[in-house]
Write a sequence for this structure.
């Protein structure tokens, strides 16, 4: 999305300054994204301006998800004095699996948002890190130290940077695929073989909370490896080449094997299983409190010492009854050894 250069700020009745620009590109884009690009704001800052009723399109207040068209004028009233949002400490318990003066690796539980955003300003992983006194690198507003993210209901490993230098290095390593991320998932049905899934991803045109496979989206690649067949589901190992929002969940839905328990990209859930296996599938679905997706492996060379780090997270406790039921309770050792026993670590 491109636009005419924003006009110089003009006084606006003492309530702030006004900036206006006209959309010039033919392709539509969301208001918040275009606003962030044109005014050099973070998406969070842009969303806050829209939510505060400070953004009008064609003379009318608009939502952040509003799709802009060529020729429309966007007018933004910027507040004169807006103190920076401070990060409130919140003593949420965290499982820190590795830490030194440069970085930390957290085993995030399901249900925890990674960084502050509308609706979750004070109850996130970042707030918990601030509460424990963890020094965090700079970065986008509200996201200090965050190198990569996990969906709220996805559990597992993520790395945070404590210094700006390490943040830059980890970001470059992630872009160059020198940070290996492997996810464990239970998916409906059976893949014929390992697959490379390459489908471009963009924001859904009608639902801002969803992503979609779109020809105009950003390139995305997921490698899917079959670890074990467990009744009507497969245990998969998913390795990311890119890190698009909802990438694994959307890619698995696109090939007809959505993640068990996924409320957004579930593709019909147990109903997609036919015959006698549907009864078993219904039972499995009842045991899934959320999407059965877990960031199980994080491997990289330390950005300062260059020593190799191989970090693993066991299958999560809240999904343990589901895996036991799928595999047969008597066939698995304890939860901590379950993924290794099923062969997940063969590619480590």
């Amino acid at each position: 999305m491109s636009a005419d250069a924003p006009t110089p700020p003009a006084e606006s009745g003492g309530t702030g300054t006004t900036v206006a620009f006209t959309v010039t590109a033919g392709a539509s884009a969301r208001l918040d994204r275009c606003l962030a690009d044109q005014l050099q704001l973070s998406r969070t800052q842009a969303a806050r301006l829209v939510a505060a009723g400070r953004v009008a399109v064609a003379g009318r207040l608009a939502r952040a998800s509003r799709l802009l068209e060529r020729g429309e004028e966007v007018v933004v009233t910027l507040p004169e004095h807006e103190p920076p949002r401070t990060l409130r400490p919140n003593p949420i318990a965290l499982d820190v699996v590795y830490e030194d003066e440069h970085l930390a690796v957290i085993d995030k539980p399901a249900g925890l948002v990674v960084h502050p955003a509308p609706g979750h300003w004070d109850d996130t992983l970042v707030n918990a890190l601030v509460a424990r006194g963890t020094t965090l690198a700079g970065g986008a507003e509200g996201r200090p130290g965050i190198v990569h993210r996990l969906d709220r209901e996805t559990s597992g490993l993520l790395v945070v940077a404590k210094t700006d230098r390490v943040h830059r290095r980890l970001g470059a390593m992630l872009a160059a695929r020198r940070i290996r991320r492997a996810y464990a998932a239970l998916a409906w049905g059976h893949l014929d073989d390992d697959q490379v899934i390459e489908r471009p991803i963009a924001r859904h045109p009608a639902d801002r909370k969803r992503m979609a496979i779109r020809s105009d989206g950003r390139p995305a690649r997921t490698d899917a490896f079959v670890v074990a067949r467990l009744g009507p589901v497969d245990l998969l190992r998913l390795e990311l080449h890119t890190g698009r929002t909802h990438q694994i969940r959307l890619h698995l839905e696109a090939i007809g094997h959505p993640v068990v328990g996924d409320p957004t990209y579930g593709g019909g859930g147990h109903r997609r299983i036919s015959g006698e296996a549907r009864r078993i599938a219904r039972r499995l679905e009842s045991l899934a409190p959320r999407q059965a997706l877990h960031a199980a492996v994080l491997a990289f060379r330390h950005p300062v010492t260059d020593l190799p780090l191989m970090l693993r997270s066991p299958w999560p406790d809240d999904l343990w009854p589901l895996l036991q039921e799928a595999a047969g309770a008597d066939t698995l050792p304890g939860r901590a050894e379950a993924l290794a026993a099923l062969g997940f670590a063969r590619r480590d």
Notes: The two ends are 41 Å apart (CA to CA). The chain is about 20% helix and 25% strand. The helical segments are 31-39, 43-51, 125-131, 164-175, 247-254, 277-286, 320-327, 335-341.
